[in-house]
Design goal:
Elements: H1 2-12, H2 18-25, H3 29-41, H4 54-62, H5 78-87, H6 93-103, H7 110-121, E1 137-142, E2 147-150, E3 157-167, E4 173-178, H8 183-197, E5 203-205, E6 213-215, E7 222-223, H9 225-233, E8 237-238, H10 250-264, H11 275-291, H12 301-312, E9 324-330, E10 336-339, E11 342-345, E12 354-360, E13 363-368, E14 371-377, E15 385-386
Parallel strand pairs: 1-5, 5-8, 11-15
Antiparallel strand pairs: 1-3, 2-3, 3-4, 6-7, 9-12, 10-11, 12-13, 13-14
Helix pairs in contact: 1-2, 1-3, 2-3, 10-11
């Protein structure tokens, strides 16, 4: 209607030609002629009456538009569609549309069906917008905000660190605190998180934290050897988020934020004297968090977990992962290797070879090329040595000079 008003103004006030009006309004000159003809038939000139708004002008020029009554079609159950897509990675919108058409032959066609579902999904919270399949991904991170433990005897306080794990499909959350942020605490928190969930996901996504990712790279990050071993033990894969790509771990970011708001903030006025005591309080609040309803979905994290994620998680091994750090060492001329200040013997055939030591809580295992040479009971005596073999049988091979892994 705005352009029609301009056409009438330029014709009757400025006396321009039709083609000049068309170029000015960026419309075909045939449209200009059509508008002027309709205005003449309607008895309109310029200036138009002040009470003639756009709707009235449209009726005068084009008559009353007959609108067909809207056809009421059965709406799909969008919540059920979303649950089906997340429960099985092989289910597609096209399959669900075909099932919808079988029940409602007069229903929407495929393009409109997808458009309506996409419009419905965009109204959900960002926490639930991403599409993760059942049991597919677990996001892990440390919260930036720390908690404190108080020494009962002296009253001194020290910081402890909050670990958060969130399943991608259901947002089911686990949290705990540890006294340190080292590799042992990181692996231990992962193991306890899987025990809490009762299974292992297909993929674990951490940040490019130095303890977890030895070499951060946009395309090929190198994992810490122990972290990779943990993933192999639980038949999962570790796929770190890309550097400076927070959306790769958006679930972890939001999970940490929720944990800080509903757990850390709720405990701000309480005093704790041990991590065990603090974790008990955290797990009580965590149960409430997982049972709290979402704002725009009539369900909870716990219910979604039971319906979607739990059936798809991989079963856990009978025994939990035994933590051990890896070191690369060289066999000395006296066929001993130095690990944490203590010397452990290996078969003399491997003098000058580069080997790997897996340092566990109670044992030290020496490997070469993936083959275990000997296992020792771990000793914490600095400068002392442990003779070979502590356990196992000797491993022999012909001497062929120094070798590297």
């Amino acid at each position: 209607m705005r352009k029609i008003r301009d056409v009438l103004r330029m014709k009757f006030e400025l006396c321009l030609k039709d083609r000049e009006i068309a170029r000015s309004c960026s419309i075909p000159h045939s449209s200009v002629a059509n508008y002027l003809e309709r205005a003449k038939e309607a008895g309109l000139s310029w200036p138009l009456p002040a009470e003639l708004d756009d709707e009235a002008l449209e009726r005068r020029l084009f008559g009353v538009t007959t609108r067909h009554p809207a056809v009421t079609m059965p709406l799909p159950d969008f919540s059920a569609i979303r649950a089906e897509l997340r429960a099985d990675r092989h289910v597609t919108l096209q399959l669900l549309w075909q099932e919808y058409k079988q029940n409602h032959p007069e229903g929407y066609q495929y393009s409109r069906f997808c458009e309506l579902y996409g419009r419905w999904e965009r109204k959900l919270d960002p926490v639930l917008r991403q599409d993760y399949r059942a049991g597919e991904r677990l996001f892990v991170d440390h919260a930036g905000r720390t908690l404190t433990i108080t020494d009962r005897a002296t009253g001194a306080t020290h910081e402890v660190y909050l670990f958060v794990a969130v399943l991608g499909a259901s947002n089911y959350t686990y949290a705990e605190v540890t006294e340190r942020r080292g590799l042992a605490a990181w692996i231990g928190s992962h193991t306890r998180a899987l025990e809490f969930f009762g299974g292992a996901p297909a993929v674990v996504t951490p940040d490019n934290w130095k303890t977890a990712v030895k070499t951060a790279c946009f395309y090929e990050p190198e994992l810490n050897r122990t972290y990779a071993e943990w993933a192999q033990f639980y038949h999962t894969a570790v796929v770190p988020a890309r550097p400076r790509k927070p959306r790769d771990k958006a679930k972890a970011e939001v999970g940490v934020l929720v944990a800080e708001r509903w757990i850390v903030a709720a405990l701000r006025h309480r005093t704790f004297f041990s991590c065990v005591e603090l974790n008990q309080a955290i797990w009580e609040l965590l149960a409430s968090l997982n049972q709290r309803k979402f704002r725009k979905l009539d369900t909870t994290r716990a219910r979604l977990f039971e319906e979607i994620d739990r059936p798809a998680l991989k079963p856990l091994p009978a025994e939990p992962f035994r933590f051990g750090e890896w070191e690369t060492v060289r066999v000395n001329i006296d066929y001993h290797v130095e690990v944490d200040g203590h010397w452990y013997s290996v078969p003399f055939h491997y003098i000058h070879d580069v080997v790997e030591a897996r340092v566990g809580e109670n044992t030290v295992e020496i490997f070469r090329a993936g083959r275990r040479l000997v296992t020792h009971v771990r000793s914490f005596k600095k400068g002392k040595h442990t003779p070979w073999p502590s356990t196992g049988r000797p491993v022999t091979r012909p001497w062929s000079g120094p070798r590297t892994v």
